[in-house]
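STRUCTURE:
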């Protein structure tokens, strides 16, 4: 039988899914050449909580939409609920907090962004079709968002539980 070449495109697969796929392909006698996924190990529960606490409410809504969508926040649905320009501010807030946190030493400068845009949307030039969160980050961010929704703070970062100044908390 001649060689069979199969090309797959997977959107936002988890590391576990890639490992299982490689195992199945190897079992079938294939030599899978799968790219390494992004290094998500730098994300911790504390880092996710710190980000959630500091981003704007609109950014928390976008992160929640991605978590609730099992890693995907659809742009058309988000804009329908929050307005045509609803995706610009949240992504700026997330970037600003990630950059500020890197300068303050809260996380590495090159840490993987929790959301990656795809697009453009077929219904509008330069509109983002969706934002994707790596599947392995979904549980981490779900916990951080649920905790924030319940308490407003992650207990270890609550102002009353620390001696930090307002400047350090923002």
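SEQUENCE:
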């Amino acid at each position: 039988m001649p060689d069979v070449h199969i090309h797959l495109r997977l959107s936002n697969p988890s590391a576990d899914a890639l490992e299982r796929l490689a195992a199945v392909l190897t079992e079938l006698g294939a030599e899978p050449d799968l790219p390494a996924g992004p290094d998500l190990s730098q994300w911790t529960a504390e880092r996710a909580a710190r980000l959630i606490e500091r981003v704007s409410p609109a950014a928390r809504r976008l992160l929640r939409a991605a978590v609730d969508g099992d890693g995907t926040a659809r742009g058309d649905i988000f804009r329908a609920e929050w307005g045509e320009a609803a995706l610009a501010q949240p992504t700026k807030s997330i970037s600003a907090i990630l950059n500020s946190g890197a300068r303050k030493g809260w996380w590495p400068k090159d840490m993987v962004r929790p959301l990656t845009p795809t697009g453009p949307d077929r219904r509008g030039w330069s509109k983002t079709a969706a934002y994707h969160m790596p599947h392995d980050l979904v549980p981490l961010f779900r916990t951080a968002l649920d905790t924030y929704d319940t308490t407003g703070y992650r207990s270890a970062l609550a102002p009353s539980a620390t001696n930090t100044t307002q400047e350090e908390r923002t």
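REMARK: Helices lie at 15-27, 45-54, 57-68, 75-82, 88-103, 138-151, 166-169.
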